[in-house]
């Protein structure tokens, strides 16, 4: 039987699974917060002129070193934590060599803020893996979002890079990057009494302490390299959000997933099934106590069946159970969750509510 997926206001989770331990610590990369500044002699204004000027990093292209509250032209550039960050302008890259465990899975979490371009995107890579992360949508009132990406280490020493492929009229135009962290992930595995892998969402990307907005998981079409092990995110530019129980109302366990993009994004997993056999998918729908009130609706699909689960949110937390019974029609069945609607929280006018 398929019985694991719990949803909170568009969160999904299920029991708690034992974690695998890897040699790498889950924390900031060396100088991942850019608080170790380059020597002033290696700067031309804010632009970094020496490829090795920023401690622990190697750069190329138009990279700027930004300090909190700094004003460039008519814009004040924010830094979410600490005092310093970098801005990636035209064809800019920052990279660092990492010591990892060969063939292990890792997720990267980092903060990003859009500055001027409307369709900014970043390319993250650790050869041979790479991914394009769209960052044009803002999900927080501060303008800073935390994104995640995952890769599988090919060797014990690998390069990790963040690249802005943009070519704007203003060469400095590009996203600000700060607080880059790494976390070891277990391979996708089944939780107890469930055919779903990571159905309780206890395995996921690094969430920075004291960060109330969680981590965004961008479109991922390969579950083996997902920051949310076992799950794929199907969308053009939208995301789902990975959250913790410290800052959100999670019905069980420590983590859940918010569906923040309405019908523009779906979260899915492919499950091995036996044609003609009956299955039962159970999950929870609710709100994460984030101030969103109104009618929430989650659509769940499996086989040829669909269930629409409404939930009247008061924005203060709570959840209810839901079930989808289906008969498998193939050896592999897609289990899909999607938010049917979304609007904005009254207390945070620019932050979308999560269904």
UniProtKB/TrEMBL annotation:
Which InterPro entries does this chain map to? DGR2-like_dom, Galactose-bd-like_sf, Pectin_Meth_Modulator
Q: Which residues form the DUF642 domain?
A: 27-183, 195-346
Matches recorded under PANTHER family: DUF642 DOMAIN-CONTAINING PROTEIN, OS02G0527500 PROTEIN-RELATED
Q: What is this protein identified as?
A: DUF642 domain-containing protein
- One Pfam entry for this protein is DUF642
In the UniProt record, the signal sequence range is 1-23
Q: Where, subcellularly, is it found?
A: Secreted, Cell wall
Q: Which UniProt keywords are present, listed alphabetically?
A: Cell wall, Glycoprotein, Secreted, Signal
């Amino acid at each position: 039987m398929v019985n694991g997926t719990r949803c909170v206001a568009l969160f999904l989770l299920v029991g708690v699974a034992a974690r695998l331990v890897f040699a790498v610590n889950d924390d900031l990369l060396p100088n991942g917060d850019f608080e170790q500044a380059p020597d002033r002699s290696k700067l031309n204004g804010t632009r970094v002129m020496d490829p090795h000027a920023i401690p622990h990093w190697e750069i190329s292209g138009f990279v700027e070193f930004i300090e909190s509250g700094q004003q460039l032209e008519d814009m004040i550039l924010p830094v979410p934590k600490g005092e310093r960050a970098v801005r990636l302008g035209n064809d800019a890259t920052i990279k660092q060599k990492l010591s990892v465990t060969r063939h292990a899975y890792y997720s990267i979490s980092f903060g990003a803020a859009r500055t001027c371009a409307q369709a900014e995107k970043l390319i993250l890579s650790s050869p041979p893996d790479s991914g394009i992360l769209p960052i044009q949508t803002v999900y927080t009132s501060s303008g800073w979002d935390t994104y995640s990406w995952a890769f599988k280490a090919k060797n014990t020493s690998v390069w990790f890079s963040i690249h802005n492929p943009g070519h704007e009229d203003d060469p400095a135009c590009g996203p600000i990057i700060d607080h880059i962290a790494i976390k070891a992930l277990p391979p996708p595995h089944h939780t107890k009494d469930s055919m779903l892998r990571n159905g309780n969402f206890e395995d996921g990307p690094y969430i920075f302490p004291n960060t109330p907005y969680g981590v965004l998981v961008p479109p991922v079409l390969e579950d083996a390299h997902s920051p949310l092990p076992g799950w794929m995110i199907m969308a053009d530019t939208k995301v789902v959000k990975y959250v913790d129980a410290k800052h959100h109302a999670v019905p069980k366990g420590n983590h859940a997933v918010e569906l923040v993009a309405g019908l523009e994004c779906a979260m899915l997993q492919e499950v091995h099934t036996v044609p003609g056999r009956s299955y039962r998918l159970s999950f929870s729908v609710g709100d994460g106590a984030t101030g969103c009130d109104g009618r929430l609706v989650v659509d769940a699909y499996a086989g040829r069946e669909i269930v629409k689960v409404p939930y009247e949110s008061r924005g203060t937390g709570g959840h209810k159970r839901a079930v989808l019974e289906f008969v498998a029609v193939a050896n592999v069945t897609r289990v899909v969750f999607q938010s049917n609607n979304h609007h904005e929280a009254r207390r945070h006018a620019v932050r979308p509510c999560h269904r």
